[in-house]
């Protein structure tokens, strides 16, 4: 007996999910590795979320400008994309495969539109603000990274029951992890951000430069964020813990490498973690989660 053919919409849904998955694998080996450690449904939803976020990043980080768009056209493209993303969950078909995949995830996981709006506010700051004071940096990191962590929690808890207290603790950890990722990225990409985009995110660096002292202070701040994030890990659904722990471990390693490097080297180029090291870290984090989860009979 032959199996029934998939419907037209089923085929389009599957294609859109594959398209979104190609975005994360093309742009971030670290997030791709960590996401691959999640159960298939979570992996799909995180990839769909990442793809939407990545496209917004590309609008403001030079790709649209390289394609010949003026500053006004770039701003308009971001506005149009925000409107499309916010409206996406209300429609069950989109001509943009990434938006189609994102919309399905946003509907099912009940994404908070206020988190999405905060994300786009931060993206808009990149178009008009090259430096920050502590208040504006906090707002920027909240919208560009912390709310992405909150949306990830919505994915992880889809179909789960969580008490308000448990959800608050997971949200606290997710915000801390998102902040750590973003701050590490600021240091990793310092040369690119300053040299090509004219951005200096940290007020300390704007005032005193990227010195050994400012670097050490920022590394310690990131370490504290990672400690807060790791403390919340056991509260996640078991299927999410390995992927999130791996992501934390990969960025922790990147932060450690920045800590060991002279400030001059960080100023000169992009810091990275070799592929084999990433695999070892992911395996170590998976083993630690397994040990923590194991209970003797």
Automatic annotation (TrEMBL):
<protein>
    <submittedName>
        <fullName>Phytoene synthase</fullName>
    </submittedName>
</protein>
<dbReference type="GO" id="GO:0004311">
    <property type="term" value="F:geranylgeranyl diphosphate synthase activity"/>
</dbReference>
<dbReference type="InterPro" id="IPR008949">
    <property type="entry name" value="Isoprenoid_synthase_dom_sf"/>
</dbReference>
<dbReference type="InterPro" id="IPR002060">
    <property type="entry name" value="Squ/phyt_synthse"/>
</dbReference>
<keyword id="KW-0808">Transferase</keyword>
<comment type="pathway">
    <text>Carotenoid biosynthesis; phytoene biosynthesis.</text>
</comment>
<dbReference type="GO" id="GO:0008299">
    <property type="term" value="P:isoprenoid biosynthetic process"/>
</dbReference>
<dbReference type="InterPro" id="IPR019845">
    <property type="entry name" value="Squalene/phytoene_synthase_CS"/>
</dbReference>
<dbReference type="InterPro" id="IPR044843">
    <property type="entry name" value="Trans_IPPS_bact-type"/>
</dbReference>
<dbReference type="Pfam" id="PF00494">
    <property type="entry name" value="SQS_PSY"/>
</dbReference>
């Amino acid at each position: 007996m032959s199996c029934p053919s998939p419907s037209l919409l089923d085929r389009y849904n599957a294609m859109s999910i594959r398209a979104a998955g190609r975005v994360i694998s093309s742009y971030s080996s670290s997030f791709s590795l960590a996401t691959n450690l999640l159960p298939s449904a979570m992996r799909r939803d995180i990839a769909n979320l990442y793809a939407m976020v990545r496209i917004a990043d590309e609008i403001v980080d030079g790709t649209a400008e390289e394609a010949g768009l003026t500053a006004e056209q770039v701003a308009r493209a971001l506005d149009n994309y925000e409107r499309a993303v916010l409206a996406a969950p209300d429609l069950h078909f989109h001509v943009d495969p990434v938006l189609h995949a994102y919309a399905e995830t946003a509907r099912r996981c009940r994404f908070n539109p206020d988190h999405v709006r905060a994300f786009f506010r931060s993206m808009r700051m990149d178009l008009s603000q090259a430096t920050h004071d502590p208040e504006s940096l906090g707002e920027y990191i909240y919208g560009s990274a912390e709310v992405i962590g909150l949306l990830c929690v919505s994915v992880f808890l889809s179909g789960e029951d969580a008490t308000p207290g448990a959800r608050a603790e997971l949200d606290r950890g997710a915000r801390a992890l998102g902040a750590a990722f973003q701050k590490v990225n600021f240091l990793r990409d310092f040369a690119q951000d300053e040299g090509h985009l004219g951005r200096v995110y940290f007020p300390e660096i704007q005032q005193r430069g990227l010195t050994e002292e400012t670097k050490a202070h920022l590394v310690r701040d990131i370490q504290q964020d990672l400690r807060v994030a790791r403390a919340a890990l056991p509260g996640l659904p078991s299927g999410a813990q390995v992927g999130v722990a791996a992501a934390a471990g990969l960025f922790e390693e990147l932060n450690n490498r920045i800590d060991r490097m002279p400030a001059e080297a960080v100023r000169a180029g992009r810091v990275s973690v070799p592929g084999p090291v990433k695999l070892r870290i992911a395996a170590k984090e998976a083993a630690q989660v397994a040990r923590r989860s194991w209970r003797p009979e």
